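Module 6 notes. Inverse folding takes a fixed backbone as the condition and produces residue identities as the prediction. Think of it as a translation problem where the source language is geometry and the target language is the twenty amino acids. Below is one complete input and output pair. Work through it position by position during the lab.
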């Protein structure tokens, strides 16, 4: 059984200040926990129902026995941030990232002021789908370790390296071509596929700042055929990655 102090600590990680203070976060859900274990992410503890643990003996074999804790569904509900709790939850250490600067021969997704946790999680998942190894987030982006963000990644958090850095500084120092998603750029259909560069996606409502747009080497636009005012940031990123990377 978990102590009241342990339950309180896990619940406290729903808040960004506590995640930053302790450099730990939680991930919930059968698929996500399996993905994290398979990728050998720094999982510190697993909290799961006895039935779940019995079904995934091989996945948890490498963890010390004391780090695998069987809990009742009622306890998982207490620990969970979800309306409908899952059967498994993982406690992980945040992985430090020392140097976010892109290197030649790679494609990086750079995000400025993304605010919605679901969008952020989907953007991480998109990067994983297209084989983008690194995302750089501006300091004013939503926390990538937000439980809703982790949930939305569907396990892709295990395969994409994420760093926080000033986007303008990245563009000034990287020496790579950059592609800023805007409403008034060049038709994306006119671009060939790329092997290196920085794809820039801005805030859901405001888009990219004027400074970032000016620093970008290319301004790109997805042509509009209907009457919608704009595209969701993650949807736009998916279309752009599909055009520039395939």
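Target side of the pair, the amino acids:
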């Amino acid at each position: 059984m978990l102590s009241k102090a342990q339950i309180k600590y896990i619940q406290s990680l729903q808040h960004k200040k506590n995640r930053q203070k302790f450099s730990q976060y939680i991930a919930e859900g059968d698929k996500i926990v399996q993905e994290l274990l398979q990728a050998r992410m720094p999982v510190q503890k697993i909290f799961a129902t006895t039935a779940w643990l019995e079904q995934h003996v091989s996945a948890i074999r490498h963890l010390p026995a004391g780090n695998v804790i069987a809990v009742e569904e009622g306890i998982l509900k207490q620990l969970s941030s979800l309306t409908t709790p899952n059967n498994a939850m993982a406690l992980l250490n945040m992985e430090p990232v020392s140097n976010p600067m892109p290197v030649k021969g790679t494609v990086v997704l750079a995000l400025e002021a993304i605010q919605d946790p679901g969008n952020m999680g989907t953007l991480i998942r998109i990067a994983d789908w297209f084989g983008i190894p690194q995302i750089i987030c501006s300091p004013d982006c939503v926390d990538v370790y937000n439980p809703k963000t982790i949930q939305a990644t569907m396990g892709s958090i295990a395969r994409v390296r994420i760093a926080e850095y000033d986007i303008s500084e990245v563009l000034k120092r990287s020496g790579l071509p950059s592609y800023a998603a805007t409403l008034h750029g060049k038709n994306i259909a006119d671009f060939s596929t790329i092997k290196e560069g920085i794809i820039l996606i801005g805030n859901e409502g405001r888009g990219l700042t004027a400074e970032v747009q000016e620093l970008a080497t290319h301004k790109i636009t997805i042509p509009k055929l209907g009457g919608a005012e704009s595209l969701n940031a993650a949807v736009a990123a998916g279309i752009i990655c599909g055009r520039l990377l395939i």
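Reference fact for the lab report: Strands lie at 24-28, 43-48, 68-70, 88-93, 107-111, 134-137, 161-164, 178-187, 197-201, 218-221.
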